[in-house]
Amino acid sequence: MRSSERPLVHTTPVQPARRRALLGAALVATAARAVPARAQTPAPKAVATSTTTGASTPTLLSPRMRQLQADWAAGHGSGGFWHQAAASGTPLVEPGADGGEQLITFLWRGPSASAELEETRSISVSWAMRSSDGFAMERLADSDVWFLTLRVPAGLHASYQLVPNANLPAGADRMARARAEDAVARTDPLNPLRWPSRPQRGVVGTEPWVERSALRLPGAPAAPWRGGAAATAQGNVRHHRHTSQRLTGPARERDVSLYLPAGADGAAPGTLPLLIVFDRESYLDRVDLPATLDALIAQQRIPALAALFVGNPTRALRATELPCDPGFADYLALELLPWAHERCPALSTQAQDRVVAGSSYGGLASAWAAFRHPEVFGQVLALSGSFWWGPTNVPHLPGFQRFGEGEWLTREFAREPRKPVRFFITAGLMEITLTGDGGGILDTSRHLRNVLQAKGYEVLYQEFAGGHDGYAWGDGLARGLIALLGQRSAAPQPS
């Protein structure tokens, strides 16, 4: 079956003359991004349920929904439709205009006129995609069928929830809207696939456990490590409270966890590669990364390695520590890493044996840590990194400027001499900007790749059919580890 994941692009250092030409083009692209966003053409809308033909009844994109529309108009009920939907599962999946697209139709069954149930006033889809119009469903005539049809990349893999009758405050901003939707969000009753599963070693976070529906369309890349660790030897995870002597205030204390693979007690000093991961609670609880590491090691896809999970003292600090904070990068390299080595002498002391990894702001922090301390962190694994970031372009933070320039770290990489660091970068095809300014995660990840290539870095780059979503990041991190470290083991390459 055809995989939706784009082939891994492996770029190697280029010759000096070619490198200068590429770097010049990359810097021109950086300058072009300084044009005010509002002056550029907006991106196309992501939602496409129907098209208008001038007739009183819109033409629906989904052939299955067009058939239901005709059946309803002819006086037939919806019972047969719901029976088929329950048997096949939702959302409905149909071919797109070409092999690169598919149509998906989310469904919600509202009460019939005679049912003594709460009336459906509104229903929408909550997921990690973006649209200027949101993802509201519409009702099919006066039936009990609510639906939303979208054109998506083939092989999409993502998680979502359905949000019925959300009470949105007037003038609500994005965060207030999210809180109102979270209060009533639920899984899709006709989709049996759920995410996340409870972690094998128990939950460490304090936030309420939230279950989501998962969507894995035909053509999504295989993930043979999923669910494959139950019968393998489990590594050990120990939780610690670390107190910093370098950081101050609330940042001084944080939770960290250290994963050691099965058999680590017998490892020789300085032999275990180390993975450093940000957003500790997310990667322990939702992604269950220790179980993935158990499976990858047992399947000989990567060598036995240790992992250090770094927590955020507060949510507010996450937004200030991870985006290119020199003090936090120094804490990682000069304080937290020596602390880990004291507890596990088997950890390698070589920079090329250390992979610093994260998603979103964590992806940005990974690249920044290696930029500031290449003598400590030799490999970067950035998942949907927030490379759009700049000191003055983040709304709601002090110093925000409406036309503040972003991509600060990319410009730093362009200015500085090449450092001894390798990269694995991945971004979702649906992580796009809505303003047409090229400032989305997909565009800025591509731009960073181009700048790094122009500077002579080794870059492993991959795009996936999805969005800003932990459901996809777990697989992306596994693929990144295989790409960066797999050659050291007798590992079969991922299918």
Descriptive notes:
Helix content is 28%, strand content 21%. The protein is built from twelve helices and 19 strands. The strands form four sheets. It has a nine-stranded mixed beta sheet with strand order 1-19-18-17-16-14-15-13-12, with helices on both faces. A four-stranded antiparallel beta sheet has the order 4-5-8-7. Strands 6-9-11-10 form a four-stranded antiparallel beta sheet, covered by helices on one side. The chain folds into two domains: 9-32 and 221-488, Rossmann fold (3-Layer(aba) Sandwich), CATH 3.40.50; 50-216, Immunoglobulin-like. The protein has helices at 16-32, 63-73, 79-88, 174-182, 280-286, 289-298, 315-321, 326-343, 361-372, 408-415, 441-455, 470-485, and strands spanning 9-11, 50-51, 59-60, 92-95, 101-109, 123-127, 138-139, 145-153, 157-164, 194-195, 212-216, 236-243, 253-260, 274-278, 306-310, 354-359, 379-383, 422-428, 458-464. It is globular. The protein is of the alpha/beta class.
